[in-house]
Amino acid sequence: MTAVCPTPHHEDDVVLLGHGAGGRLTAELLESLVLPALDGQGGPLEDAALLPGHPDLVVSTDSFVVSPLFFPGGDIGGLAVHGTVNDVAMRGARPLALTVALIVEEGLPLPELRRVVRSLGAAARAAEVPVITGDTKVVGRGAVDRVFVNTTGVGQRHPGLRPSAALARPGDAVLLSGPIGLHGTTVLSTREGLGFESDIASDSRPLHRLVAALAPLGEQVHTLRDPTRGGLAAALNEIARDSRVAIDLDEDAIPVPDAVRSACDLLGLDPLVVANEGCMVAFVAPAAADTALTALRARPEGRDAVRIGEVVPGGPEGRVTLRTLVGARRVVDMPLGELLPRIC
Amino acid sequence: MTAVCPTPHHEDDVVLLGHGAGGRLTAELLESLVLPALDGQGGPLEDAALLPGHPDLVVSTDSFVVSPLFFPGGDIGGLAVHGTVNDVAMRGARPLALTVALIVEEGLPLPELRRVVRSLGAAARAAEVPVITGDTKVVGRGAVDRVFVNTTGVGQRHPGLRPSAALARPGDAVLLSGPIGLHGTTVLSTREGLGFESDIASDSRPLHRLVAALAPLGEQVHTLRDPTRGGLAAALNEIARDSRVAIDLDEDAIPVPDAVRSACDLLGLDPLVVANEGCMVAFVAPAAADTALTALRARPEGRDAVRIGEVVPGGPEGRVTLRTLVGARRVVDMPLGELLPRIC
């Protein structure tokens, strides 16, 4: 506990935006307040949980509060499908079904609600994952901002595929399925009218078919994670922590689109902490790295897949470092709190 | 389509509070907008859906937006557990696990959030249903009213128990597990400071053990439903519609606590349309009615179980009627729209 990292332990403390940002404040809120109350086991926080008594089934839930509702490359409806499909997939599972729960503000134009729901339906059909049940609540004006969407997904694990945030091993190759930073910068630019939104679009897309492409590699696939809130920095820090390993990245290898880099420069953001909704990292045994890259690149959503680093034997546990373009080496920290509110 | 029942078909129409009230407006919104977009099959809307490929597993989702967060007999945390446990149970299933997704307003005092989450955890433990995964989002002040909770549940059906809203049959006994009207009147009275809240308390409680008590009756249990939003009137109208039967109720047999009756008289509400969170209706074959009543009454949450009516052979399909105390007979309509906003 340091001055830059306050723990919410005073009774007069309040919830901060940063508590929901996927960084250190989020982890603290979960560890100090939520998990103890819910009997959390203190194990690795995975994207999806195993269903008790059904070890082949996984479950994941996510609420979507993105603002604005519509942005280049996506909208809250598609995002709600992709986000949960991807969380299920990151446990090595094929999504079987989704639930959808809408909380709608009184006065929302019905055409806007229709557009959200149609996009959600279209995304579910495109992902070939049925929406099997749902819930619709309406609350008074001002009690919710337009519409929030919760999706929960159930998936069935591919035989032999058992990835976990705790299973990265020294020597593993760290693969990334595509460029980073598009979703966060697009939503932020659209919301704030920064002008980048004509050059970039969210990468919102389902990743379960990329996972299926890796399934034949079985237990050589150690860890899968989609770097959403908190970006690549948060995802890799969580993996380094839960697997007790050191991860070394090659900055030169990490694909950052020019428009993302420009937007991040202007905003003072590190592309590594910007949310993504359509790429994933895969930690695979070194002998399987080339096969895995080929499998990823064979699909459109993985055609830009690259190797961005490795798990270094003997490095400090939980540490993520970056070999920069100028040959220096810097630590990639877990982001603290809210950089980009309501990005998903 | 009549003057009192507008269909949302104009592009300048907006979402109304009544669209989320569980009555006719909700049904119209679902049928005209949500279900077509999501490929809804147009079948009976059950409390929980079957998981594709796993016919013994059911899934249900619900968002909780109750205001105030705390009220006599319960709070949003316990309600979020009971509501989804009960929806899963109404498909004849034993709940296996819950997911919890919180949307929290920036500035909410942490002690208040802690109280909600602890209550949620305590309710899950008491119900013996683990919370296996979750999500926490924080949005800016004014973007949500304090905290909303989504829970999704997965359950495993009891062998031989296959209740459905479409399976009520002529001759069935209609059983009710306990008194009606407590939850809705308690929340409303607390929110509006009407003063009844010292005499009444929400019936928020889990019902899955009552369902387990009926499991030995197997296929003689035709329909189970917990009458939440829209109350007993909405639940029975849905069953009459989906099963294409006529239901006849005996007003004298329906237990309405005195304080509920007083509150409803004052507010001009019919207790039949007030939300409940701790009672259920069961449609059982006539030969099994006495056994079912005995089984329900053997549990504390079912000790006041009564027979309130029957499915009448040859009656008009979809019609629910009430034999009143004075010997008259009146139609129990599907409630139109919002009577008690944000009751769950």
Automatic annotation (TrEMBL), chains A, B:
Record CDD domains: HypE (cd02197)
Domain PurM-like C-terminal: start-end pairs: 169-315
UniProt domain PurM-like N-terminal: residue ranges: 46-155
Pfam families to which the protein is assigned, alphabetical: AIRS, AIRS_C
Domain of life (superkingdom): Bacteria
Record family assignment: Belongs to the HypE family.
Protein name as annotated: Hydrogenase expression/formation protein HypE
Organism encoding this protein: Streptomyces flavalbus
Taxon lineage: Bacteria, Bacillati, Actinomycetota, Actinomycetes, Kitasatosporales
Gene: hypE
